[in-house]
Amino acid sequence: MIQYLTNNHEIVWQALQEHLYLALLPILFGFAISLPLGYLAVRFSWLYHPLINTFGVLYSIPSLALFVFLPVILGTKVLSPVNVVVALTVYTVALLARTVADGLRSVDPVVVQAATAMGYRRTRRLIDVELPIALPVVLAGLRVATVSNISLVSVGSLIGIGGLGQLFTRGFQLFYLEPILVGIILSVVLAAIADLIIVLVQRAVTPWTRAA
Amino acid sequence: MNFSYLTDPAHWDPSNPGSIPNLILSHLGYTALALLIGAVIALPVGLYIGHTGKGSFIAINAGNAGRSLPTLGLLMLMVTLLGLGLLPVLIALTVLVIPPILTSAYAGMRNLDHRVVDAARGMGMRPWQVLTRVELPMALPIMLSGFRNAALQVVATATVAAAVGLGGLGRLLIDGLAVNDYSRVLAGAIVVAALAVLVDLFLALIQRLIVSPGLKGS
């Protein structure tokens, strides 16, 4: 395996970079979309169940089906990485919008009342009080979304998109174990590192959760 | 959008081995086998860890570790090691379903109200009775939600079986893509998504039937 790595480090390095970018871009987009969506689902409670159910169905669409089907809807090329980014963004939103809503709903109403009594208006109260309290729940959802995105990107290799999945299909076609093993290990390590970073960020930004 | 593949009666003829009903059957076959093997392995382990509290670390981290393992890579690794066939597909899919089943069995047992368990003991129930009549029925809703999660994932992921030459609904996606037949790809995507929803509804119905009425609404 070491020999495979030394001989092919350029291919592996490029696959790793593509993988990272294809997995993390959707997380950024998905997070940016989920925050307002989750907030709306809490602010207008009649939206909550329709939204959750829609995302439940979206989440059940297989990634392979979404990858090959998006070009038909978006008019993109089959080989375009945009398909993978959009598909994974859909999954991220499906997962995170619910977590954001659940996190905001878990905020103790007494705390919200206290903040209102202290003169917080809706927007400031949301940013200064409710979101920070919801953050542990939201970040737990972000961990799930990040880890599953990193492992899902590899399915894109079936439709010729880059990333570590390329190592799987290459090894499979040549009946050659090393690239597959390298791909799996790198993918798992990448997910573990991303997960660890989120945990560390959470510890840094929510110091009060450690007091309990 | 072109629905012609989906609506062509010839593609629904059960006597044709590549027809949609047969692909659905093989797809459900992989799904059910993987869920069954996964449950046989993961349920006892999860229940044991949840009951005794020993090895909680494993149960808590199994979920995340399992999610991070790319199923496609595992599948191709298994095929490279074992050759083509049903076994590598089953191994890859079983590895996929074990974490959610294990974690939810653990969580179900951990979240029991200890007063109820104590009350059962106080009433003179033996450990086996406490387990089968109190702990298991009360843990059932959480355990089943984990099982439904696993089922949803495996129905969606069983499509990759087609990438290593097996059947299942992934055939429509892979073959359709190979010959640029988007109508077939669309048919595959729709049928898999519908199947996932139906399987989930079916399991929800079972959940409604077997969860004790005393636990509902809580």
From TrEMBL, chain A:
Transmembrane parts of this sequence: 20-42, 54-74, 80-97, 126-144, 150-168, 180-201
UniProt xrefs under CDD domains: TM_PBP2
The family this protein is said to belong to: Belongs to the binding-protein-dependent transport system permease family.
Domain called ABC transmembrane type-1: residue spans: 16-201
Principal cellular location given in the protein's record: membrane
GO cellular component, one term: plasma membrane
SUPFAM superfamilies assigned to the protein according to its UniProt record, in alphabetical order: MetI-like (SSF161098)
UniProt entry keywords in alphabetical sequence: Membrane, Transmembrane, Transmembrane helix, Transport
Protein name from the UniProt record: Osmoprotectant transport system permease protein
UniProt-annotated location(s): Cell membrane; Membrane
Pfam families for the chain: BPD_transp_1
Entry membrane topology: Multi-pass membrane protein
Record-level GO BP terms: glycine betaine transport; transmembrane transport
Source domain of life: Bacteria
TrEMBL record, chain B:
Transmembrane stretches, start-end: 28-50, 71-102, 150-174, 186-210
Its membrane topology: Multi-pass membrane protein
Listed InterPro entries: ABC_transp_perm/SBD (IPR051204), MetI-like (IPR000515), MetI-like_sf (IPR035906)
GO cellular component, one term: plasma membrane
Keywords: Membrane, Transmembrane, Transmembrane helix, Transport
BP GO annotations: glycine betaine transport; transmembrane transport
Signal peptide (residue range): none
Superkingdom of this protein's organism: Bacteria
Main subcellular localisation: membrane
Record localization: Cell membrane; Membrane
Family, similarity comment: Belongs to the binding-protein-dependent transport system permease family.
Protein name per Swiss-Prot or TrEMBL: Osmoprotectant transport system permease protein
